[in-house]
Write a structure and sequence with these properties.
8-stranded parallel β-sheet; TIM Barrel; two-stranded antiparallel sheet; 14 strands; globular
Length: 326
């Protein structure tokens, strides 16, 4: 299964790899965790290369993940394979790499250029396939200026296309008006649908890149309580926007919804995660889920969803009815 990013020549596998978790531990300026706990960089490299062996070619990261660490690890893993892969990264947050701390945000065009060149250096490449604004709630007028800057980057050969990572339809529409906007990155999963953004992607002819396709772990079946949330993991002390977890662990409300659809999602030999990915493929032909990973086993499971493909219309209808009753 392959999908295009918009009307561009950029072809990606139907499932990508989200590289937030491989950034390891990092914090905000007050010391609150923003990562998913500590990771082994060597394991991350092996996992990325295993994804390539399995046919996955799309890797989504951000400069701020691990305060630069995710980009560096990804660049190391993909060295010698640049022509085989599609690399997406994001900008907008300001961070200190030495202390692994996010210190603020910068929405100026000047910073966009500075951040892009820094990302190219960390990734070990001279262009990025997809460059994404990581500030989800800046004013639309600011977004328009940054869209125009992205057009300059395309003309200079520094990027091939661009997107806005936002869950706000009006803001996303500002970017999709640009000639070389090829995607919108937004949250979407079987537990939290995004009909307006999916409709915008269809209307605009761009890809729908789905972050949190596994509800930050709830749709793997691993997290049903506070057990298993490690020190330094954002899910252990969740900020207000993180709906899936509370300070006491996995949210009982969302766990119940996941359990309600477990049987349908795991039918036909799928794992729960593979069923959740199949739901996204069935939801729209433009979706490209980007589940996170920290191990080879997680990569193999997520990419293994390709063996099963989308859920059937009957399964989609059954899931809709089950969730309506929870």
């Amino acid at each position: 299964m392959a999908r295009s990013l918009g009307d561009s020549a950029i072809q990606v596998g139907a499932v990508g790899l989200g590289c937030w978790a491989i950034g390891g531990e990092w914090t905000d300026s007050e010391g609150n965790p923003l990562g998913w706990g500590e990771v082994d960089d060597d394991e991350s490299v092996v996992a990325i290369r295993r994804a390539l062996e399995l046919g996955a070619n799309f890797f989504d990261t951000a400069d701020v993940y691990g305060a630069g660490r995710s980009e560096r690890v990804l660049g190391r893993a993909l060295a010698g394979h640049r022509d085989e892969v599609v690399i997406a990264t994001k900008w907008g947050n300001v961070f200190d790499e030495s202390s692994r701390t996010m210190t603020g945000a910068d929405e100026t065009p000047e910073y966009a250029r500075k951040a892009l060149h820094a990302s190219l250096s960390r990734l070990g490449t001279d262009y990025v396939d997809l460059y994404q604004l990581h500030l989800s709630d800046v004013d639309a007028e600011v977004g328009a200026r940054l869209r125009d800057v992205c057009e300059e980057f395309v003309a200079e050969g520094l990027i091939r296309g661009y997107a806005w990572s936002t869950d706000d339809q009006a803001r996303a529409r500002v970017f999709t008006a640009g000639e070389h906007c090829v995607a919108v990155q937004h949250e979407c999963s079987v537990l939290h649908d995004a009909p307006e953004l999916l409709a915008l992607c269809e209307e605009s002819g761009v890809a729908s890149i789905n972050r949190s396709p596994l509800a930050m772990g709830l749709l793997t079946g691993k997290y049903t309580s506070a057990d298993g949330v490690a020190r330094g993991d954002i899910r252990g002390t969740p900020p207000g926007w993180l709906r899936w977890f509370t300070e006491d662990g996995a949210s009982a409300q969302w766990v119940a919804r996941a359990e309600a659809v477990r049987e349908v999602l795991t039918s036909g030999g799928r794992t729960l995660a593979q069923g959740a990915i199949g739901w996204l493929w069935a939801r729209s032909p433009r979706t490209v889920p980007i589940p996170g990973f920290r191990s080879v086993a997680q990569v193999e499971q997520n990419v293994g969803a390709l063996d099963f493909g989308p859920l059937t219309p009957e399964q989609m209808k059954e899931i809709e009815g089950l969730l309506a009753r929870v």
